[in-house]
């Protein structure tokens, strides 16, 4: 679905990505893990077009034929129109808009009012707390509620590819499980998911494929489960032992 | 006298209101005081004047002429505002500048427009042709100017239209979202350039309409747009984050001014208004229609 | 020669006022549209004391500065607790109120016809010395706990409170300091032009000063000084353009604000250290 | 008398009781964990203690002195330091200055000393600068002293928040999800860091976390909030065994590599 | 050889219409003098400085003119700048001939004339006394309502002597109303004047406010004559879009279109700019005439000689009247004004008028 070739990105003198290549298969979950500052968010931001690369190409390929791969545009709003939607790090909800308005903003590109309403109901069903808070200003939600809202807002756009940047940040363990279940479920609905996570255990556990990013480079890749059991990964990212 | 004063106050207030609504739109949505609105109003007032000179040869019904002039001014307002966005704000948004830069850019733009008009039309002033034969009608036993009533009706209409656009349409939602975070808004598939241009064009349209009314009431001169300061005061008093507050604020400001002029004279009025304003803000720090949202840490 | 000197003197006077705006807006992020009022207070109080009451110069100047600070206190006390956006409104209203007051007390201030025959005490050395002292004070302020706390408060008021900063007091102190500087620049102004009139002190002056501060650089003092010299000198250079003068000035400001968003100096300061760094970098570039 | 004693803390927003009659205490050198589902009122409790919101009801005693009703800055100066869940660093200042600013309110010099370039001013400035550097190196950020905080990755920004809170000289340190955005091995490191800091400064720590490892390893006592009310409290072992807590908050334990 | 004459006007800013008019008038005079061979073979050259209606700009501009060797300066249109310039010009010694009607510009507090400042039209006192005398002595109106811009020096200086004259002559000020800069709505004040039962309204202000007041007077039903200032002169009436409203207004102008001495300048101006000249054009023209006359009388073209010659000017026929500069006040003496009445948008001339008091 997504193919990234030799991506280089820098912020002035900081080289954030140095030649990252990766591939995301249609309908799969690809997890990206790595320590702070490895460049994970930068990678997602480059895909969305928020950050411009110095070098390298990003292709969107819907898998219908070998030659239908096309370059992803560089304006973020065009990227979204092609179905590649990012849920940004740190929630970034529209603080002064209500919960409901935030969700409607997510559905900006969907032109069918009926579908929007159905999607909205689905979101409220998934996280009933959001329904309770529908008229509250998003900025006053608790951290976790904001995170749920951010995820739902992304889903309202009916993405083909969903880029999730640390979706479990600040969520209660029980909700975290819910989020990973959701991720799995939307994958099963045919949506492709790129998942950036610090919660490496779980991220690897549900991933079809995974990459480890370090200092802007891919240092390891493989099937999720296999990385999970890789001693090097365990040592560096999983804290040696299991997290509760 | 009291009724007359109140009606005069409301008339004056509706002049302010029409300015304040356009001003408040940008203030509330993009979070800066768009002083270029003054320049836009001036230019549109002149554009309307030029249109009236040109069209009066072709149109004989003054009502038709008037509507055509209004439309021409509104259109030119939208276009100029779009140009202002392009020239003075777009790059700032790209570089994610703080609101004060918008303020500076807009105020400079306002001065520039004012000066361009001075160069184009000299600081001489002009009068619009008379569109209506009766200039005042009796109401509650006192005289009320026709233009004042139209202006009042128009500010209310503008307010309703704006509220509808902002709160009932997708573009409105986009405009409101865009002011919180330009980046994130793009992640929803919105094109912030488009949204902000739309917002400015709406306020430019309003600026065009106010320009014509200001020109009709107060004659045309390059500093006409400096009335925008009243719009600024009204929209802040009205409560940050509220457009209907701006209208109420404007009418209140107009009534207060007239009241003080009649009570203590125009000389002392600014002093009294300052004191009242301060007292008001201390008693009601959120403005007239603002809502308090406690900042969450 | 007189021409050059008068240009330098006016630039110096403006610079002292601009430093006040730098403190309030550049450092603290508050917006004042009423700085001209403090200038008027400084100018008028000193002029009236000397002319009408024959007070000697030094105490008259001291009293003028004190009066400007008192006014700053009056405006500041109720407003520092309000939301920031209101400060520009209150100061705007204050500015208009002061002008109205001056117009209405014609028997003391001469009203709209102004007050003339003020002794001309502002000379080039006086201005240069004043600029040096004011600049030194502001540099010290910026590089102390006060300056840092102001910047913190500008970034995030709530967090600043949570770091133990008494933001109300800080705003007030900064406001008073700026009021004193602006008042003093008003004193110098009156003592140079020998004539004061209320109409000269409108909110546009505050706007112009704010423009200068941000053309100079976000919170760079060096930039502020440079921009003051540049932007007060610019209209002189543009005299050839006659009626296009102001328009060209605006275009230049727009270009700087839009294409060099951080201002002329960005956040950098010209200090011995930075000069050395610049020199060494230039050496490095040379083959 | 406990170092910090909170009684009957209550706060509603509109109709929602965000915190409802919450009481707890913390001793010197103790680490207290606060957990609970999202929206349970944990951050609100912190905001109440630090004076961001006025309380509806309740009392907050630090070393026996009432804090309720005081201004935020007074509360901080009397010895309560905090970090923010949604990072709130001073964007306009460098990393080092961020920390210095937090220490500044304790600088006693006045304008007189400043304007005369007096000894008090110069001495204190030097002092503040060097202590700020010390705090930075404690959390391992000394390398970034001159950077702007917004250029740091998320995880490091959290550490800077901690350094800044340390510089306010707290008797009680409030950490709101300090480990969010760290990967498991970084979480490990972080746990070590908090332990060290506690040793070194001897303050009490209140920590809100959703990362169970942090809470379970560090705290001697855990309070569980749910819908603003205290659901349970006790030692980590007790909490782990509490069925209600598991159901409302932790969920079923989940294996991973073993599969 | 060239003789530099400075010209300080508002070229940008709200009052630039006047500035441009004065400049054009002065240029016409200079072209005429130069065409006739200049002054002893030396050509006059006008150097214009923009003052932006701002004291600070004016001081810089004056100093710049002095530095470049100007021997006289056609002065600023407004009194505030004149007041600020007086001491500076006194020191620099380059005379200023202006329209600063505030008498304080030309006469210092000590009662002595300001050495370098010369006024070339009736001072505000003279002008307002002409108007007051006309009001009470000719029109016989005794109950006066006054409306003026309290924040405008020009307006205030025209209001005070008027009120004093009326009171001294046994008249009554029925109501004194003010407004401030930027105000556009005067209905409240006008209504108060109506309530007070005034039988005329004295309104000494700029042309634009004049139009507004004229219109709003009708809206509040205030049906009394307006005694206006200079700014009611043409093109005022053509700018009131309702001819019904531009009615029953008295004003005084510096000249009459019918007077023969204007003809030449009038035609040159009209040929050059395709529009009728306004009174400021003639004032600009006359200022140059005055400077030339002072050169003759002072015996040379240096600044000091111009300054010395200026107070000796006597019975100089200008376009706006016969000029005699008083050495005691540096103001013209005994200048009469041409009175007009506006009826349904049309100006009707009532002849020159000068009160008994002014005739020496
Ligand atoms: N706007 C920026 N300006 C300068 N440097 C930046 C900027 N954003 C990120 N960086 C740098 O780029 C590198 C990669 O950052 P990135 O945010 O992609 O890391 P990350 O893997 O997402 O880390 P985390 O897990 O903490 O979110 C870091 O060294 C960071 O300091
Ligand atoms: N200023 C406010 N206005 C209205 N409601 C608020 C405000 N602050 C908090 N709330 C509500 O109070 C409840 C408690 O919020 P709080 O932030 O304390 O939760 P939390 O326990 O910190 O949750 P999380 O773990 O998700 O951060 C939430 O439902 C939130 O929506
Ligand atoms: Mg990241
Ligand atoms: Mg929280």
UniProtKB/TrEMBL annotation, chain A:
Lineage: superkingdom: Bacteria
Protein's name according to its UniProt entry: Amino acid/amide ABC transporter ATP-binding protein 2 (HAAT family)
GO biological process entries: L-amino acid transport
SUPFAM superfamilies listed in its UniProt record: P-loop containing nucleoside triphosphate hydrolases
Keyword Translocase attached: no
Protein family per UniProt: Belongs to the ABC transporter superfamily.
Pfam families (UniProt xref): ABC_tran
UniProt-listed InterPro entries: AAA+_ATPase, ABC_transporter-like_ATP-bd, ABC_transporter-like_CS, BCAA_Transport_ATP-bd_LivF, P-loop_NTPase
ABC transporter domain residues: 2-240
Stretches of the chain forming a coiled coil according to its record: none
From TrEMBL, chain B:
Keyword check for Protein biosynthesis: no
GO molecular function, one term: L-isoleucine transmembrane transporter activity
UniProt keyword Membrane, yes or no: yes
Family annotation (InterPro entries): ABC_transp_permease, BCAA_transport_permease
Record's bilayer topology term: Multi-pass membrane protein
Coiled-coil regions listed: none
GO BP: any one term: L-alanine transport
Subcellular location: Cell membrane
Keywords annotated in UniProt: Amino-acid transport, Cell inner membrane, Cell membrane, Membrane, Transmembrane, Transmembrane helix, Transport
GO cellular component, one term: plasma membrane
Transmembrane segments: 6-27, 62-88, 100-120, 140-166, 195-220, 232-254, 260-283
Similarity comment: Belongs to the binding-protein-dependent transport system permease family. LivHM subfamily.
Name of protein: Amino acid/amide ABC transporter membrane protein 1 (HAAT family)
Gene source species: Aminivibrio pyruvatiphilus
Source species taxonomy: Bacteria, Thermotogati, Synergistota, Synergistia, Synergistales
From TrEMBL, chain C:
Record's GO cellular component terms: plasma membrane
Membrane topology: Multi-pass membrane protein
Source taxon at top rank: Bacteria
InterPro entries per UniProt: ABC_transp_permease, LivM-like
Keyword set, alphabetical order: Cell membrane, Membrane, Transmembrane, Transmembrane helix
Localization terms from the record: Cell membrane
Pfam family, one: BPD_transp_2
Keyword set includes Transmembrane: yes
Nucleotide-binding found in the keyword field: no
CDD domains in the record: TM_PBP1_LivM_like
Main location group: membrane
Annotated TM spans: 6-24, 31-50, 56-77, 86-103, 123-141, 172-191, 211-234, 246-266
Example GO molecular function: branched-chain amino acid transmembrane transporter activity
Protein name according to UniProt: Amino acid/amide ABC transporter membrane protein 2 (HAAT family)
From TrEMBL, chain D:
All copies of domain ABC transporter, residue ranges: 4-252
Superkingdom: Bacteria
Keyword ATP-binding in annotation: yes
MF terms in GO: ATP binding; ATP hydrolysis activity; L-isoleucine transmembrane transporter activity; L-phenylalanine transmembrane transporter activity; L-valine transmembrane transporter activity
Keywords assigned: ATP-binding, Nucleotide-binding, Transport
Keyword Hydrolase listed: no
GO aspect biological process, one term: L-alanine transport
Gene Ontology CC annotations of this record: plasma membrane
Pfam families: ABC_tran (PF00005), BCA_ABC_TP_C (PF12399)
Protein name per Swiss-Prot or TrEMBL: Amino acid/amide ABC transporter ATP-binding protein 1 (HAAT family)
């Amino acid at each position: 679905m997504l193919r990234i070739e030799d991506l280089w990105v820098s912020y002035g003198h900081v080289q954030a990505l140095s030649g990252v290549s990766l591939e995301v298969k249609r309908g799969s979950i690809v997890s990206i893990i790595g320590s702070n500052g490895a460049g994970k968010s930068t990678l997602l931001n480059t895909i969305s077009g928020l950050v411009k690369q110095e070098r390298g190409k990003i292709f969107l390929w819907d898998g219908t034929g070998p030659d239908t791969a096309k370059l992803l545009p560089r304006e973020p709003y065009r990227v979204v129109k092609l179905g590649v939607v990012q849920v940004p790090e740190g929630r970034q909800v529209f603080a002064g808009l209500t919960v409901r308005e935030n969700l409607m903003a997510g559905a900006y590109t969907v032109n069918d009012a009926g579908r929007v309403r159905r999607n909205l109901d689905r979101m409220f069903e998934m996280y009933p707390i959001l329904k309770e808070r529908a008229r509250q200003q998003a900025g006053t939600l608790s951290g976790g509620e904001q995170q749920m809202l951010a995820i739902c807002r992304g889903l309202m756009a009916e993405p083909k590819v969903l880029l999730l940047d640390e979706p479990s940040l600040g969520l209660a363990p029980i909700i975290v499980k819910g989020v990973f279940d959701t991720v799995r479920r939307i994958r099963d609905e045919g949506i492709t998911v790129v998942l950036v996570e610090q919660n490496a255990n779980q991220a690897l556990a549900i991933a079809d494929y995974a990459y480890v990013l370090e200092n802007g480079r891919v240092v390891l890749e493989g099937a999720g489960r296999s990385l999970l059991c890789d001693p090097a990964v365990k040592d560096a990212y999983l804290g040696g032992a299991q997290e509760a | 006298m009291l009724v007359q004063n109140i009606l005069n106050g409301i008339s004056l207030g509706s002049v302010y209101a029409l300015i304040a609504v356009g001003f408040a739109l940008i203030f509330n949505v993009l979070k800066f005081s768009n002083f270029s609105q003054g320049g836009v109003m001036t230019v549109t007032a002149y554009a309307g004047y030029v249109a009236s000179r040109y069209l009066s040869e072709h149109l004989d019904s003054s009502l038709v002429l008037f509507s055509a002039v209004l439309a021409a001014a509104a259109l030119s307002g939208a276009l100029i505002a779009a140009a202002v966005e392009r020239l003075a704000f777009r790059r700032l948004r790209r570089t994610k500048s703080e609101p004060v830069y918008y303020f500076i850019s807009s105020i400079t733009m306002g001065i520039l427009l004012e000066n361009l008009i001075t160069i184009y039309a000299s600081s001489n002033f002009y009068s619009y042709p008379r569109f209506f034969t009766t200039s005042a009608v009796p109401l509650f036993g006192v005289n009320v100017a026709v233009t004042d009533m139209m202006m009042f009706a128009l500010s209310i209409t503008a307010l309703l239209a704006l509220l509808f656009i902002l709160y009932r349409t997708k573009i409105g939602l986009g405009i409101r979202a865009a002011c919180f975070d330009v980046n994130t808004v793009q992640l929803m598939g919105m094109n912030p350039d488009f949204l902000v241009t739309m917002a400015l064009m709406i306020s430019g349209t309003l600026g065009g309409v106010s320009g014509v009314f200001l020109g009709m009431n107060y004659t045309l001169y390059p500093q006409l747009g400096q009335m925008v300061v009243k719009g600024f005061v009204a929209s802040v008093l009205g409560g940050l984050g509220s457009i209907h507050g701006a209208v109420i604020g404007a009418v209140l400001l107009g009534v207060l001014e007239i009241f003080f002029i009649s009570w203590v004279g125009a000389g002392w009025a600014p002093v009294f208004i300052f004191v009242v304003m301060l007292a008001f803000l201390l008693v009601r720090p959120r403005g007239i229609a603002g809502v308090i949202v406690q900042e969450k840490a | 020669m007189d021409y050059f000197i008068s240009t330098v003197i006016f630039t110096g006077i403006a610079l002292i006022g601009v430093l006040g705006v730098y403190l309030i807006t550049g450092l603290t992020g508050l917006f004042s549209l009423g700085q001209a009022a403090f200038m008027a207070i400084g100018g008028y109080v000193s002029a009236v004391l000397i002319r009408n009451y024959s007070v000697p110069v030094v105490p008259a100047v001291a009293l003028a500065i004190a009066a400007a600070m008192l006014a700053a206190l009056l405006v500041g006390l109720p407003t520092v607790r309000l939301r920031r956006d209101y400060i520009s409104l209150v100061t705007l209203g204050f500015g208009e109120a002061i002008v109205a007051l001056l117009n209405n007390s014609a028997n003391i201030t001469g009203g709209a016809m102004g007050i003339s025959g003020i002794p001309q005490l502002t000379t080039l050395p006086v201005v240069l010395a004043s600029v040096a002292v004011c600049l030194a004070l502001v540099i010290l302020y910026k590089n102390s706990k006060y300056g840092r706390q102001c910047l913190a408060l500008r970034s995030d008021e709530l967090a600043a409170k949570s770091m133990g900063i008494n933001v109300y007091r800080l705003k007030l102190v900064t406001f008073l300091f700026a009021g004193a500087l602006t008042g003093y620049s008003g004193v110098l102004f009156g003592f140079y032009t020998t004539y004061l009139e209320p109409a000269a002190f409108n909110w546009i002056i505050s706007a112009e000063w704010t423009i200068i501060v941000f053309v100079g650089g976000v919170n760079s003092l060096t930039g502020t000084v440079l921009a003051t010299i540049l932007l007060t000198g610019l209209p002189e250079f543009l005299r050839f353009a006659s009626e296009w003068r102001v328009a060209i000035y605006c275009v230049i400001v727009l270009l700087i604000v839009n294409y060099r968003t951080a201002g002329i100096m960005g956040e950098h300061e010209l200090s011995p250290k930075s000069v050395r760094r610049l020199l060494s970098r230039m050496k490095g570039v040379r083959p | 008398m406990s170092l910090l004693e909170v009684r009957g803390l209550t706060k509603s927003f509109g109709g929602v009781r965000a915190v409802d009659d919450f009481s707890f205490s913390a001793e010197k050198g103790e680490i207290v964990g606060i957990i609970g589902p999202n929206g349970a009122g944990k951050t609100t409790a912190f905001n109440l203690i630090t004076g961001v919101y006025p309380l509806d009801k309740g009392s907050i005693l630090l070393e026996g002195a009432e804090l309720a009703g005081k201004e935020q800055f007074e509360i901080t100066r009397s010895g309560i330091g905090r970090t923010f869940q949604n990072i709130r660093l001073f964007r306009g200042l460098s990393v080092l200055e961020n920390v210095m600013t937090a220490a500044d309110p304790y600088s006693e010099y006045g304008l007189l000393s400043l304007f005369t370039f007096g000894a008090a001013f110069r001495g204190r400035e030097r002092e503040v600068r060097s202590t700020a550097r010390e705090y930075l190196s404690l959390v391992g950020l000394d390398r970034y002293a001159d950077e702007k905080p917004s250029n740091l990755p998320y995880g490091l920004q959290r550490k800077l928040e901690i350094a800044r809170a340390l510089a306010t000289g707290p008797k009680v340190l409030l950490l709101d999800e300090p480990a969010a955005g760290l990967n498991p091995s970084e979480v490990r490191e972080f746990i070590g860091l908090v332990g060290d800091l506690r040793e070194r400064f001897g303050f009490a720590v209140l920590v809100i976390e959703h990362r169970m490892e942090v809470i379970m390893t560090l705290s001697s006592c855990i309070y569980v909030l749910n819908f603003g009310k205290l659901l349970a409290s006790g030692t980590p072992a007790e909490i782990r065994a509490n069925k209600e807590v598991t159901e409302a908050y932790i969920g079923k334990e989940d294996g991973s590599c073993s599969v | 050889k060239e003789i530099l004459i400075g010209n300080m006007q508002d070229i940008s800013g709200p009052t630039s219409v006047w500035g441009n008019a004065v400049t054009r008038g002065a240029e016409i005079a200079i072209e005429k003098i130069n065409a006739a061979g200049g002054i002893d073979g030396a050509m006059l050259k006008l150097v214009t400085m923009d003052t932006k209606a701002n004291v600070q700009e004016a001081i810089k501009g004056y100093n710049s003119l002095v530095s470049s060797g100007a021997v006289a300066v056609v002065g600023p249109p407004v009194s505030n700048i004149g007041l600020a310039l007086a001491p500076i010009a006194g020191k620099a010694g380059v005379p200023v001939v202006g329209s600063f009607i505030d008498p304080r510009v030309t006469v210092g507090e000590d009662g002595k004339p300001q050495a370098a400042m010369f006024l070339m039209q009736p001072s505000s006192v003279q002008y307002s006394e002409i108007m007051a005398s006309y009001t009470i002595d000719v029109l016989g109106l005794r109950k006066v309502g006054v409306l003026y811009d309290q924040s405008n020096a020009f307006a205030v200086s025209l209001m005070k002597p008027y009120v004093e004259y009326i009171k001294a002559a046994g008249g009554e000020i029925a109501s004194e109303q003010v407004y401030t800069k930027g105000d556009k709505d005067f209905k409240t004040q006008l209504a108060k004047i109506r309530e007070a039962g005034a039988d005329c309204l004295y309104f000494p202000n700029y042309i634009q406010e004049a139009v507004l007041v004229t219109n709003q007077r009708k809206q509040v039903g205030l049906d009394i004559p307006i005694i206006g200032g200079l700014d009611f002169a043409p093109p005022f009436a053509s700018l009131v879009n309702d001819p019904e409203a531009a009615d029953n207004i008295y004003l005084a102008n510096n000249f009459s279109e019918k007077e023969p001495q204007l003809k030449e300048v009038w035609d040159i101006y009209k040929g050059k700019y395709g529009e009728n000249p306004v009174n400021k054009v003639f004032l600009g023209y006359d200022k140059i005439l005055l400077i030339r006359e002072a050169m003759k009388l002072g015996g040379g073209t240096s600044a000091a000689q111009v300054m010395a010659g200026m107070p000796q000017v006597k019975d100089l026929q200008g376009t706006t009247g016969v000029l005699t500069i008083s050495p005691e006040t540096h103001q013209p003496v005994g200048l009469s004004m041409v009175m007009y009445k506006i009826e349904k948008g049309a100006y009707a001339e009532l002849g020159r008028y000068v009160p008994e008091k002014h005739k020496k």
